[in-house]
Design brief:
There is one protein chain. It is built from three helices and six strands. It is α+β, with helices and mostly antiparallel strands and 93 residues long. Strands 1, 2, 3, 4, 5 and 6 form a six-stranded mixed beta sheet that branches. β2 and β3 form a beta hairpin. The longest helix is centred in the first third of the chain and has 10 residues. This is DUF4031 domain-containing protein. InterPro entries: DUF4031 (IPR025109). It holds the Pfam family DUF4031. It comes from Streptomyces anulatus (Streptomyces chrysomallus).
């Protein structure tokens, strides 16, 4: 069980954001996110958006810091990548 977070370098809504992902399951990701106080609305397809102010909280709780490219590679290798514009498996449009 490993959770990963990339650096807060993604701009949006006047802040910088990180992405939090799991390489095992969405259940693991949702449980970890809830434990560090991420609201369900922060989940987007295959990751949680984490504001820069909460980056250190995620790392202290056990998320491993990695670069953005490595994060996407691990997510893809785990079969959990859900790119924009592609249907989510098991969910009807």
């Amino acid at each position: 069980m490993t959770l990963y977070i990339d650096p807060p370098t993604w701009p949006g809504h006047g802040r910088l954001w990180s992405h939090l992902v799991s390489d095992a399951s969405f259940e693991e990701l949702h449980a970890f996110a809830a434990a560090i106080g991420c609201p369900p609305r922060a989940f987007e397809r295959d990751h949680y958006d984490v504001p820069e102010a909460h980056y250190a909280d995620a790392v202290r709780a056990g998320a491993r810091e990695i670069g953005s490219k490595e994060l996407v590679r691990r997510l893809t290798d785990a079969g959990l990548r859900r790119p924009k514009g592609r249907p989510v498996p098991g969910v009807r449009p």
